[in-house]
């Protein structure tokens, strides 16, 4: 890009990268019979305190009614548990199971190996900076 040209907008650059990474992840998810939303839910629940469906939906920026079918599927496959909140029986608390954690770990490792397509192009210093800044901007 010539020096006097403006850089592309962040959304343009990030959208292109996001589309490429999502496309690269899909075969991994398909191999493990897991939807993208299912993977997102397992990642959100892994390492977190037990949480309500509403809190989960908020944390992953999803409509709480939209993820119900994902939660049903994950529960049916033994990857999560839903129990009534003892303080409010109308509320369901979610927790990842050992089976769900093992699946999430396996899928995440395969996805991260695939991310080397992009990260492998960076020097160790640039890679560390890129990942740190990306985490900072997405927090």
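Sequence proposed for the structure above (139 residues):
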């Amino acid at each position: 890009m010539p020096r006097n040209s403006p850089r592309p907008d962040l959304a343009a650059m990030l959208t292109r990268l996001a589309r490429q990474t999502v496309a690269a992840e899909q075969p991994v998810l398909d191999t493990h019979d897991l939807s993208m939303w299912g993977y997102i839910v397992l990642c959100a629940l892994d390492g977190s305190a037990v949480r309500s469906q509403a809190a989960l939906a908020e944390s992953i920026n999803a409509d709480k009614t939209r993820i119900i079918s994902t939660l049903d599927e994950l529960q049916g496959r033994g990857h999560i548990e839903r129990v009534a909140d003892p303080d409010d029986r109308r509320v369901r608390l979610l927790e990842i199971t050992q089976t769900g954690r093992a699946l999430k770990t396996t899928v995440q490792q395969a996805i991260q190996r695939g991310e080397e397509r992009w990260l492998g192009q960076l020097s160790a210093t640039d890679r560390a900076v890129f990942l740190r800044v990306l985490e900072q901007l997405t927090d």
